[in-house]
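Retro notes
What went well: the complex prediction finally ran end to end.
Inputs used:
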Amino acid sequence: MQAAIPLILNAMTLISILLLVSLGMAIIFGLMNVINLAHGEFITIGAFTLVVIQGLGGSFWIALIVAPMVGYVIGLVLEKILISRVYGNPLHAILVTWGLSLILQQVIQLGFGSAPQPVSGPFPGPVTIAGVLYPAYRLFLIAFALATFVAVVVIFKKTRFGLDLRASIQSTEIAAVMGVNPDRVNAHAFALGSALATLAGVLIAPMAAVTAYMGINYLARSFFVVLVGGAGSIPGVAAGSGIIGGLETLLSYQIPVTVAQATVLILAIVILRFRPQGILPS
Amino acid sequence: MIPGQPLLRLEGVTRTFGAFTAVNNVTEEFSSADINCIIGPNGAGKSTLLNMICGTLPVTSGKITLGEKPIQGLSGDRIAKLGIARKFQMPSVFPSLTVVENLSVAAALRGDDALVADILSNIRMEDEAHSLAAELAHGKKQWLEIGMALALRPKILLLDEPTAGLSADETRATAAFLKELKGDVTVVVIEHDMAFVRDLAARTIVMHLGEIIASGAFAEIESNEMVKDVYLGRR
Amino acid sequence: MSSGLKKIHRQAANRMRVPTLVAVVLVLALCVLPIWIDGYTLNNYRDILLLGLFALSLDLFWGRTGILSFGHATFFGLGAYGMAITTIKLGLDPAWASLAGLAVGVLLAAVVALFVGYFILYGGVRGAYFTIVTLALTMIASHIAIGWSSMTGGDSGLIGVPPLSVLGYTFYDPVSSFYLALGALTLCLFGSLWVMHGRFGLVLKAIQDDETKARTLGYKTQWLLLKTFVVSAAMAGLAGALYATGTGFVAPDMIALLLSTEVIIWVAVGGSGSLVGAVIGTAIVWQLQVKISSISFAAWPIAIGVFFILLVLVFPEGPVAFLARKLSKLRGSRKGEAQ
């Protein structure tokens, strides 16, 4: 039983990261039917914001607050000049956002070089939990990510903006009749999704190699979370994250990580064959 | 296929939706190579009957036989393979293919190039042979779709309001080429346009409130008092 | 033959005329190329031909079904790595090792395409979702290529892939390996033109228009799409396997997302759907690629990014058609002024 605790906690770490990243993607995809291949770049932007702030002498906590704001603003700008032109055309969205991600990756690499950037996170060192030693930072990450997820869900359910968003996901026409301004909702939804990914980037940075290409791995996994879990539904995102994250962690104990990821991908494809709408569609 | 022999038989066919009976105990025979018209006011159950024949809707009770084979309850594509082709109200053709290409694709599984040329002249569209289907007028699209259904060499062709949206001239032309099909294919047409039905001069079946209230040659039906009452709403 | 039938056959012949003509001219020109070009440059051309074959394989699927595969480098790479691993790591008799490598490369690509294609196509996945899945496929494939270093040589890849040798003859020197590539390309190009301009291509186009309608006509649409996908993958695998015998090595960039992206551009520039355009597009963009990459490492990916954005926002029909349209408008307005 004791041996299982690190496994469970590792799984929880990956799952909670996927939750944040995929939630953003689910909003963007579920609402605007836009496939944003640059979503992973926001993770990178979050991580590099931490790099810059710590380089300037700031703390992790400042970055944790600033980065999502940066992500939000960049999201608004991108939506305005690029994304709004490809609504309703998923193929165009793919091409445009892929092009964007290529440019962002290169620009970041030109600015910072290709070596991994040094960052430091709070709570270094292990703590004892249930009789087992486990990195404290990861426990913090799990708690913070889950709290953020819950907060976003609350925003969805309780606020005017959340209501507008949910109505628009159901049907843009009906929402418009209800007085919802679709342009505003789209813009802020995209920005929100991007901010979530940026936040995830800050959280990931102390655990991972911070390079210009770090985002793409999470891109694929979060896509499958959304597809397998069910596009446009929050329970779907939770289910998808649980499955994809849990399975990958479990498998990576026995086989190399890349093979574990490949296996999860294959399983996801098989699941999609028999349940194309996802496990918990909206 | 022997002309005049019953090809499609309906026996006691009924369809209910909860408490509502859409089709009530319909018994009827359709002879092969004949043209049949089903008319009746809205809500009479005509489309429901058609849906049951081609397998889109299951029967609540009753039997439908094609030749010797019972087909009620079989799936739509099984029935299609057995030789029942249906043309829906909204024309669906392949817009980025030409007329000839559309017909070729429909005929391809039967592997018959000569068939395509034949149908092209049947539906009187030789002049538009190389026009893109997307550019055709609504009426021509309807004809093309009928042509594609014919390319499947069906035993029975079901047409659901084929003259919807057609001009008077186009309607007349449609009646003309449907009449030419007599002897090759069994045609069952649901229609509202009385001028068209008169032109067809075919065996006519009148439905009302889910039941067949009259059937026979159009001339008889036209002078039938009960039918007139039904149409004028006196019943 | 009735006049209606004659019309149909004539129309089919017309459809084939322009691209086939271009293809014939292209192949003839390439046939005599070695007369003027020497060893090193000839090798370059050989590589371009094989990459053109790769682009052709993508157009075979994308051009006719309208479904974009973002993962075709997976199949190219599987072909290349299949060849390399078979000839280097398995210790086979050199007499037929490279033939075995060819078979392994092509089969590997075909089998992966069959598996992935079956599950997604029969699951009703089309359009953008299909694209994403193939993108993820390439990502995983390239991770494995880099991670499984004992088999694949990891980051550095494998060197020592022998030139192709068939029944005792080895395609060793630049001229023979050039003709090998040209031969493969010609076969596949004319084969594709013939099939795609015939009934099969027509049915694929119909499926692209309205898959449900095609099903009601009795076509097994998923199977037809899967067939096309697998053949397209096998062709990409062939290109990859031959490419490895030419360069003598394999590296992870032969199975990378960047390559998947580049091949899309090659096809897009030539105009997707024309088949021969894919080959021409490759030649055009390749020259550009080499020049831009020499400026800086980052310049080419940025150029691709900008290209994609422009492709969508400014010239969705492809840059060549866009320019052609602009030029004809210009000529038209000049004429108007002159009058």
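What we learned: Residues 10-295 of chain C form a domain with the ABC transporter involved in vitamin B12 uptake, BtuC fold (CATH 1.10.3470).
What to try next: split runs per interface for comparison.
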